Amino acid sequence: MIELKRMLHAPGYWRPSMAAFPDPPAPTNTPKMQELQRTDRARYDRIIADTRRAAAEYTRNYSQYDEETVAAVDNFRKDKDLDYQGDAPGLVDARLIDALRSASIAKKKAGESRPPRIQSVQCAASAGRTAATHSRPRVDSTPLDGQRGGAAGPFIASITASSDAASACRS
Q: CA-CA distance, 158 to 50, in Å (whole number)?
């Protein structure tokens, strides 16, 4: 349920006024807490009590399928043309989840300020170099099967980098 609310929040259907979806309370079974339990039991008990209260509040606020979530699901379904006659209010099915994932990913990508890690590959002919390297083409060949130069199996072809920039872009 928490993930459904997180996905509805990303495109702005569930609690759009909330700046960011909150993270769950931190776990208490950490080496630091185990050490605290041995050294300062009173402080450990206070932290555990606070964490339990925070976890109960988090569960109450974010892990229940309430009327607010039903309304957000219905609004999303209407906006994405997923609202079909006979569907129960607040229906969560595979189509809704797929659409929510797509909307959530699109929202995250739109909010990225840094360029993506993998850039599109462009033909290097205009730069005077092959697509394989920046300064010189490779002269070695790599067997397709990755073993003993192709002699181990039926695939004995090898791949060789082109020294001609124009042909490298065509292939």
A: 64
